[in-house]
Amino acid sequence: MAETNYDLIIIGGGPAGLTAGMYASRARLNTLLVEKVVTGGQILITDWIENYPGFPEGISGPDLSDKMLEQARQFDLKFEYGEVESMALEGEVKSITVGDKVLTAKTVIIASGASPRSLNVGEEKFHGKGVSYCATCDAPFYRDKVVVAVGGGDTAVQESIYLTKFAKKVYLVHRRDELRAAKILQERALANEKIEMIWDSVVTGMDGLFGVENVGVKNIKTGEETTIAADGCFIWVGILPNTGFLGGALEMDAWNFIKTDAHMATNIPGVFAAGDVRSTPLRQIATAVGDSAIAATSAEHYLEGL
Amino acid sequence: MAEGILDITDDTFEAEVMNADMPVVVDFWAPWCGPCRAIGPMIEELSGAYTGKVKFVKCNVDDNPLSPSRYEVRAIPTLLFVKGGEIVETITGMTAKAKLEETIGKLL
Lengths: 306, 108
What we know:
A: FAD/NAD(P)-binding domain, FAD/NAD(P)-binding domain, five-stranded parallel beta sheet, 6 helices, B: alpha/beta
C-alpha cells in the first residue's frame, strides 16, 4: 500500500470536523484536521444554543466550541491551520496543498461547512460599519439604537431576539408573510415588544456617510418602497456551501452542496462529506455531529478494505 | 484573551497607539465575542513572532467605549494596523493568519 502522511485528513474545524476528528482519533487513525482560521465554525457566531442535547440550560456557541475542541484534542488529533489551495482526490493517495505544504492521506472528510449568504445589494462597503452577520459580536454596539434584521429562519429569529437585549427597536424584514423558524422562536419573537415584523418585504440597499444610517425596504406584494432610519443591518438570509475550493471534483446538488450516500461517501472512493457542506434536508449542530460519526466510521471501514 | 498583550484603555490609547515608536496592531475585542476569543491565541502567536518590530495591544470595547467610536469600529473582532499615528489598514472579522501576516508586512 502507498505511504501517506496520514490515514485521514479532515477539512474544516466546525462541529462536523471536530466530531469526525474525535471519532477517527479514538479509532486510532492517524488524523489531521485542517482549519482555515480557527476551530468552531458557525457556532462561534451563535449566541445561544438550546436544541443541542445534554445542555438543558442551553449553552453559548463559543462555549460549546471550546468543549468540542477540548474533547477532540483528548485523542491525539493533529491540527494544521491554513487555507486549502488545491487538492487531488482521485486514486489511492489523496493530496492536499495547504500553504506551502503538500499533505497526503488515504481518506478525506470534507467538513468545510457553509458561510452566511449576503444580500448583494451593496452591503459589502458597510461590512463592519453597520452591516453584520454576528449579533453576539456586534449587538452591544447598538445599545438603545434602531436596527434592521433580515430573514425568517431560526437564525434570523433567534438572533433578532438577542438583539433586543441591546437595541431599542428591531425591524425584522422577511420576504414572506410567515416565519420559517421553529415555533417556539416565532412565539417569542412575535411576543417581543421591541420586534416589529416587516412582512412580504426585502432590503433593497442602505446608505450613510460613515456607516449605515438608512435601510431601504420594498414590499414585494405592493411594490411600495420605504426607508427605515437605522444604525445597523443584521443579515441572516441563509447560507452558501464552502465548496468553491473543491473545483469540480465532487458531485454536487443544484446549490453546490456535496452529494453523499447514507455512509457519507461522495462519488470519489475514500472521500466523504459531513455537516453543513453536505446535501441534506436539515443543517443543525445535531445533524452535523451525526454525519461526522458516520463519515469517520465509514473512513475507518474504507481503510480496512484497502 | 492573550495574556502577554498590553491592555489599553480610552485614556492610554493616544500614547500607546498613536504616539508609539513602532507600528501597532490594535485588537478590539470583548469577553462576550466568540470569534474574538477564538482568534486570541493566534494574535498572541503573532505578537510573539514580531517582538521588537510590531507592538500588539488589545482594547476591551466594553470597558472603553470611546476608542471604538472614535475610530469608527462598530463590529468586533476588528484589528487596526497603525504606523506613525496613521491607520494603514482595518480588518474586521475572523481572518486567516497568512492574511494578517501579509498586512503586518505592510507596516514594516
